[in-house]
Design brief:
The complex is a heterodimer of chains A (about 180) and B (about 80). Chain A is of the alpha/beta class and about 180 residues long. Chain A contains seven helices and four strands. Chain A is globular. With about 80 residues, chain B is α+β, with helices and mostly antiparallel strands. Classes of the chains: A alpha/beta (about 180), B alpha+beta (about 80). The interface between A and B is medium-sized, with 15 and 15 residues.
Chain lengths: ~180, ~80
């Protein structure tokens, strides 16, 4: 009798072992280093056959706006934000020692010397490996961003409730 | 040993050896072998973790002259 009862439990255990691991990243920061870290973790997790979702909110949008968009925004204040910090994943500033762009320039020189992939290349890799990137609708409204301002291949914009579902269903959630 | 694909990830930093290995695996069939050569010391543990996570088998592993060589079998 007990053997019969154990059988389904054993099945569940083996299913559990084969279950795809899920990672959720909340990409909140806009500076170069956290953007870089998010991209490294997301691309590697996808390479490890994990299901990766990135919820992009607030300053994280710096990495989602197309590099070519100079002044996105619908009104003066939103455009002023774009003046103060140029959007685009290739234009991220360092959180320390930015020195008017000298810091990031040096960082990219070092990356080249030591064969470290730039955030933009890793983002391409993420998209190639099926990482799902969800833009936050509220931030888009706040910053006056249209879908056309953002890079291609993103999921439909969502809100905090979807992010919470992604986070609670994931095996690990990172707020970066 | 019949190696189907050789991937040279020499000089590349984390996570590129893993990403190159992932790209390589996509081009070979189940049961076939891929060889990856890397110089990143971190790749020794990383490649084993990657194989463990994806289900591919790390068949052979050695190092010489600062180069790390991995042979992996497609699951």
């Amino acid at each position: 009798m007990s053997a019969v009862e154990l059988a389904p439990a054993a099945e569940v255990a083996s299913e559990g072992a084969a279950k795809t691991k899920k990672i959720c990243i909340i990409a909140y920061s806009g500076e170069l280093e956290p953007t870089w870290a998010s991209m490294i973790i997301a691309s590697t997790a996808a390479a490890m056959d994990m299901e990766v979702s990135i919820f992009v909110t607030f300053w994280g949008f710096g990495a989602l706006v197309k590099d070519s968009k100079r002044l996105p925004g619908k009104n003066l204040m939103q455009r002023m934000l774009s003046v103060m910090q140029r959007p685009g994943i290739s234009h991220r500033k360092l959180s320390k020692m930015n020195f008017m762009g000298m810091g990031p320039w040096m960082m990219f020189q070092l990356a080249k010397k030591y064969n470290v992939s730039k955030p933009k290349d890793l983002l391409g890799m993420c998209q190639e490996l099926g990482v799902k990137i969800y833009p936050c609708q509220m931030t888009m409204d706040l910053f006056g961003l249209n879908k056309e301002d953002l890079i291609d291949g993103l999921e439909e914009p969502v809100g905090a409730a979807t992010m919470l579902m992604l986070a609670t269903e994931a095996d690990s959630t990172l707020f970066i | 040993m019949d190696i189907k694909l050789k991937v040279d990830a020499s000089g590349l930093s984390c996570p590129l050896p893993i990403l190159r290995a992932t790209q390589g695996m996509k081009t070979i069939a189940p049961g076939e072998l891929m060889e990856v050569v890397a110089t990143d010391p971190g790749s020794v543990k990383d490649m084993a973790a990657w194989a463990g996570s994806t289900g591919h088998t790390l068949v052979e592993q050695d190092s010489a002259n600062g180069k790390f060589r991995f042979v992996l079998r497609h699951k």
